[in-house]
């Protein structure tokens, strides 16, 4: 499993924005579809909230890769 880190520039980032920024999805709409289709886990659980707020310490898994969200 490939691991990535993402450093926050504010208190949180939404799940769909993170997927788009890290190029796991080509657009925000595509990112929302990925979440709706059950392709994304947050902190070890299937996530269905497209705009879930991610804070420092959150771990996102998608497409066999892991993203750790870090504080600034």
Name its key features.
72 residues, alpha+beta, Structural Genomics Hypothetical 15.5 Kd Protein In mrcA-pckA Intergenic Region, Chain A, 5-stranded mixed beta sheet, 7 strands, 35% strand
Write a structural description:
- The protein has one domain: RNA-binding S4 domain (Structural Genomics Hypothetical 15.5 Kd Protein In mrcA-pckA Intergenic Region, Chain A), CATH 3.10.290.
- It has two helices and seven strands.
- The chain is an alpha+beta fold and 72 residues long.
- The model has no long low-confidence stretch (mean pLDDT 96).
- Helix content is 22%, strand content 35%.
- The N and C termini lie far apart (24 Å).
Mean pLDDT across every amino acid position: 96
**Helicity, in percent?**
10-25%
Overall geometric form? globular
Number of domains: 1
Task: Provide the low-confidence segments as ranges.
Answer: none
Topology-level CATH name: Structural Genomics Hypothetical 15.5 Kd Protein In mrcA-pckA Intergenic Region, Chain A
- What structural class do you assign from the helix and strand content? alpha+beta
Report, as a whole number of angstroms, the end-to-end distance.
24 Å
Number of strands: 7
The CATH superfamily name is RNA-binding S4 domain
Quaternary structure classification: single chain
* CA-atom Rg in angstroms: 11 Å
Order of helices and strands: EEHHEEEEE
* Helix count, DSSP H or I runs of 4 or more residues: 2
Q: How is the main sheet built?
A: 5 strands, mixed
| Major beta sheet, strand line-up | 1-7-6-3-4
What portion of residues belong to β-strands? 25-35%
User: CATH class, anyone?
Assistant: Alpha Beta
């Amino acid at each position: 499993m490939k691991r990535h880190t993402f450093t926050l520039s504010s208190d949180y980032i939404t799940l769909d924005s993170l997927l788009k920024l890290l190029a796991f999805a080509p657009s925000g709409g595509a990112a929302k579809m990925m979440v709706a289709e059950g392709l994304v886990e947050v902190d070890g659980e299937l996530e269905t909230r497209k705009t879930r707020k991610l804070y420092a310490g959150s771990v996102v898994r998608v497409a066999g890769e892991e993203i750790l969200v870090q504080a600034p």
